[in-house]
Amino acid sequence: MKTLKHYLKRAQEESFTIGHYNFSDFTQLKAIVSAGEKNKSPIILGTSEGESKFFGLEEAVALRNVLRKKIGLPIFLNLDHGKSFEYVKEAIDAGYDMVHFDGSKMPLDENIKITKQVVKYARRRGVLVEGEVGKIGNESSKLYSEKFIIDENDLTKPDDAERYIKETKVDLLAVSIGNFHGIEISGIDPNLRLDILKAIKEKVGKTFLSLHGGSGTPEDDIKDAIKLGICKININTEIRLAFSGNLRKFLNSNMEEIAPYNYLATAKIAAEGVVDRKIKLFGSANKI
Ligand SMILES: [Zn+2]
């Protein structure tokens, strides 16, 4: 199987993006992989610290291995928003393909210091590292009923990104360009600051750029961001909404149903539909 780096490079060269899809239970995981299989698309599976503590790091690795072997799809596993060196190390030791160290809330010097530690540990083991500079709004995926205000100071400063990349040598950089975790209640988030993305790209050269909070982002912005060099986009909220919404609806209208393989089936189809649409939007179909 070709490496994740191979696919990211290909995405960068051919202007498509690889989707990163979060899961915290086996039905969601199956839905994501099934959409990848149908579209012949490389897939990055993601677990945040919370998701991986619920699911289990070793369990996630074991299932990645089983599914890779069974369907032969390039499926990769990433620890999303690891907050400490210790937890990131646990994910690497468990067998994750990639780790995202999120030191964005730390002062830049400290962020750089710990990221360097992560890169040193990861690189020897063939694991890719994503770093983050600038703050991406919000703690968790949810629906915001009021307009989400982005503080200009939280956006990634191109000069900081340049220094961070030079000193840490991470493989990927998560940028804050108006994106945030969660979705506005309207379903459509504010536009991305593509001017800032362009300026960052000029400073960081071939570093792979990653966009978090892809749920709810206007589709034209996604397409433009891919043209400007974004080669990984994270989707979580839309999958959670489709999965939980359908599950709730099904259980409410089928009060007698108690068999998980029955009530989880519609939730799986809904989650799979979200991933299917993203794969088509990202242009990653038939790229394996
Ligand atoms: Zn994120």
> What is the residue-averaged pLDDT?
95
Widest sheet, order of strands: 1-2-3-4-5-7-9-10
Q: Compute the gyration radius: what is it?
A: 18 Å
Please, how many helices?
11
Order of helices and strands: HEHEHHEHEHEEHEEHEHEHH
Strand fraction equals: 15-25%
Net shape: globular
List the bound ligands: zinc ion
Fraction of residues in helix: 40-55%
Structural class: alpha/beta
Largest sheet: 8 strands, parallel, barrel
Q: What distance separates the N and C termini?
A: 10 Å
Query: How many beta-strand segments?
Result: 10
- Give the uncertain stretches in residue-range form: none
Describe the structure concisely.
With 288 residues, the chain is an alpha/beta fold.
Word description of this protein:
The structure is a single chain. By secondary structure, the chain is an alpha/beta fold. The protein contains eleven helices and ten strands. It has helices at 4-14, 26-39, 49-55, 57-71, 85-94, 108-123, 158-168, 194-204, 219-227, 237-253, 260-282; strands at residues 18-22, 43-48, 75-82, 98-101, 128-133, 143-144, 172-175, 183-184, 208-211, 230-235. The strands form two sheets. Strands 1-2-3-4-5-7-9-10 form an eight-stranded parallel barrel, surrounded by ten helices. It has a two-stranded parallel ribbon with strand order 6-8. Helix 2 packs across helix 11 (260-282). The chain is globular. The protein binds zinc ion.
